Amino acid sequence: MKFLCDQMLGTLARWLRLLGYDTLFSKGETSDEELLELAKKEKRVLITRDKLMSHFARKEGLRLVKINSSNLEEQLFEVMEELKIELDRDLFLTRCSLCNGRIRKLSEEEKEKAYNQKLIPEGAHLSTNEFWLCERCGKYYWVGSHWKKIEEKIKELEERTHEKTKRISNPK
Ligand SMILES: [Zn+2]
């Protein structure tokens, strides 16, 4: 499943990438017509907060998620619920949050080289032995405090999804 977010949803777009979804987002220079065209051409689910935009998307028969919340976790939840998708841990952190490129794990040799060239900070090298690289933009990733925070948020979201499912399947 591929996504296209409107310009109001940049943070959501970066999170969807971290969850492993191929996600593009409008940075503002794209017109509404161009955005609709792109969603249609690349068969992307359009994610928007804009009423007018969702109206046009419906008219065009595009797959659409209309976001109502301004809270990130709520927004992720809205996407998952609307499209009936579950978080897939195998996809988690396979895509670059900056450029949507693929992230791959570094080999021992590559790690050594990156470390010697000071592309990986010394502190990071001390705390973990696993590093990833975005093949498109060259950003390095490792599980630091930022990632731990992200994982916690994902877990929260999963628990909430789980509770919701329980409520649906066990009506009292
Ligand atoms: Zn990248």
Describe this structure in words.
- The chain is an alpha/beta fold.
- It has two domains: 3-85, Rossmann fold (3-Layer(aba) Sandwich); 99-172, no CATH class.
- Helices cover 47% and strands 13% of the residues.
- It has seven helices and seven strands; from the N terminus they run βαβαβαβαβααββα.
- The protein has a four-stranded parallel β-sheet with strand order 2-1-3-4, sandwiched between helices. A three-stranded antiparallel β-sheet has the order 5-6-7, with no helix packed on it.
- Strand 1, helix 1 and strand 2 (23-25) form a beta-alpha-beta unit.
- The longest helix is centred in the C-terminal third of the chain and has 25 residues, at 145-169.
- The two termini are 34 Å apart.
- 23% of the residues are buried.
- The mean pLDDT is 88.
- Residues 96, 98-99, 101, 134, 136-137, 139 line the site of zinc ion.
